[in-house]
From TrEMBL:
Its EC number is 2.7.1.49. This is hydroxymethylpyrimidine kinase. Residues 40-276 form the Pyridoxamine kinase/Phosphomethylpyrimidine kinase domain. PANTHER family: HYDROXYMETHYLPYRIMIDINE_PHOSPHOMETHYLPYRIMIDINE KINASE THI20-RELATED, PHOSPHOMETHYLPYRIMIDINE KINASE. InterPro entries: HMP/HMP-P_kinase_dom, PM/HMP-P_kinase-1, Ribokinase-like. It comes from the Bacteria. One of its GO terms (molecular function) is hydroxymethylpyrimidine kinase activity. It is an enzyme of class 2 (transferase). GO terms for cellular component: cytosol. One of its GO terms (biological process) is thiamine biosynthetic process. Keywords: Kinase, Transferase.
Amino acid sequence: MAVADRRTTAASRQRGLVISSHAMKNFTSRPVVLCLSGHDPSGGAGLQADIEALLAQACHAAPTVTALTVQDTVNVSDFRVLDREWVLAQANAVIADLPIAAVKLGMLGSVEMVETVLEIMARLPGVPLVCDPVLRAGGGGALGKEDVGYAMRERLFPVSTIATPNLPEARILAELPEGSADECAERLLPHIRHLLITGGHGDESEVHNRLYCRDGSRHDFTCARLPGSYHGSGCTLASALAGRLALGEELTSAVRSALDYTWRTLRDAEAPGHGQYVPRRLPLDLA
Ligand code: PLP
């Protein structure tokens, strides 16, 4: 290849273009998923989890920070929700520039942030929205004020395609402290079209993940329970699901794909710190 061609190729790569030695191909972008989530400095959960899980679905993550947290793999000790203006400015800049194919919600932290997300979604009519109703860290520490769950259910669920609570989160959202997954779903489905209640926090030998749809259909996905507890498994699942929907996969199939992917990331998890395992979301050989 001539020197001039090589220079063009390098410059084009920097701009994200794919070049063959013979001809320049038209580059088709991967689907863009807007993530509205918190930052976890341990890298196990939050935006880093979203980005990694989306890369693994061949999607591009556009991460807007909603909150900062202070935490390690054991637990969270503090958090700060960003000002509404900052979150709107980040999201608006991205929406004006990139074609958003799906949106993934993680930690919002306050009722005001729930309202901010509604403002953002008003600019994205018809775009699939996956709501991971983050209320607590895996270690048990709160990641939002008390009334956030109620605001999510009343305000965000109606505009969401699907929410992905684990059973403890579903119980809080349904206000049924001892409720079964079926009872929680019955209480929540008037608010949302699809609900995936995951069973990872139980103690049966198998994990039962249940997809409830407002049209009355229901799908059960069962997998083997893996030993240990994991940091960022919910973020991984919701992001993978948003990515699958962004790729155009049908909802039930997208749920199955996202659950299968998440299970593999847990099977291959690492223990980088003193607390929970961190899912391995990307292959080791990216070089
Ligand atoms: N988002 C942030 C910023 C977090 O820090 C956490 C947990 O610590 C979560 C989301 C939820 O994590 P998980 O996927 O383990 O439920």
